[in-house]
Specification:
Elements: E1 8-10, H1 16-21, E2 31-36, E3 42-47, H2 60-93, H3 106-132, H4 139-164, E4 180-181, H5 182-207, H6 218-240, E5 244-245
Parallel strand pairs: 4-5
Antiparallel strand pairs: 1-2, 2-3
């Protein structure tokens, strides 16, 4: 006897040729569905009918259930990828990308938001831009590239070249309103962009799924980075321009 967690539904039938002889409704096949309830549900489809010759007959019911299971498997795979992405994102946010002992400037606060959250959005956006060139890629690897490039570019490269150009406080945490050097700001952002191209190129290269298409990644890579960096530079500029001067 089946327990409470198992239900077996069986429909026994005849082939179309046999059923027509006796004028009863034809059943294409007989299916049994065994549903096992566990920590992860499983759906087992058992076809119990066969035609002469011993070959199983797949009914529309069985085919529908097979499609359901396949769709469910794809959903599970998508969920696993999403979970893997979130785990990577969480780990990356633990990196000491921003050490704001004096976090008071709008640029600092936006930089923190950029570091923790916006980088993931930028990475996905760049991945989609590359896809427009018909180059399938691994978005999660491009997201990692953006975190690494920001860690090095905006936290080390940009402040260094900003200082060389006369702005000794790139993030503006210790600069009075109206005294921020915009020339140094743009020098830092330009240097950061150049560093980004060098740092992210290997990530984009290996993010391409088809090895034969990797040699075509250079133009899409540059276009994606140029667009996102121009937008981010403009956003940072709008934040600092009110308290800056040339």
């Amino acid at each position: 006897m089946p327990n409470a967690q198992q239900k077996v539904l069986c429909n026994w039938g005849l082939t179309l040729q046999q059923s027509s002889a006796v004028h009863i409704q034809a059943l294409v096949s007989a299916d049994g569905i065994l549903l096992v309830i566990s920590s992860l549900h499983q759906l087992l489809i058992i076809n119990l009918a066969s035609v002469p010759g011993g070959q199983l007959v797949n009914s529309p019911t069985a085919q529908s259930l097979v499609r359901y299971v396949q769709a469910d498997d794809q959903h599970i795979m998508t969920t696993e990828k999403a979970n893997r992405f979130l785990i990577i994102l969480f780990i990356l946010t633990l990196f000491p990308t921003m050490a704001f002992a004096n976090a008071g400037s709008p640029m600092m606060w936006f930089g923190m938001f950029h570091s923790l959250i916006l980088n993931a959005v930028i990475g996905v956006t760049e991945s989609e831009i590359v896809r427009k060139f018909k180059i399938p890629n691994r978005a999660w690897l491009i997201v990692i590239a953006n975190y690494v490039s920001m860690l090095i570019g905006l936290n080390y490269i940009a402040p260094h070249f900003s200082t060389i150009s006369g702005n000794y406080d790139f993030w503006g945490g210790q600069t009075n309103y109206g005294a921020y050097e915009l020339k140094g700001f743009f020098a830092g952002m330009t240097a950061s962009f150049c560093a980004t191209l060098i740092i992210e190129l290997p990530f984009f290269f290996f993010a391409v799924k088809d090895k034969l298409l990797r040699k075509k990644i250079f133009i899409p890579f540059f276009v994606a980075n140029f667009i996102t960096n121009i937008v981010m530079t403009l956003v940072y500029y709008l934040i600092v321009k009110g308290g800056g001067h040339w």
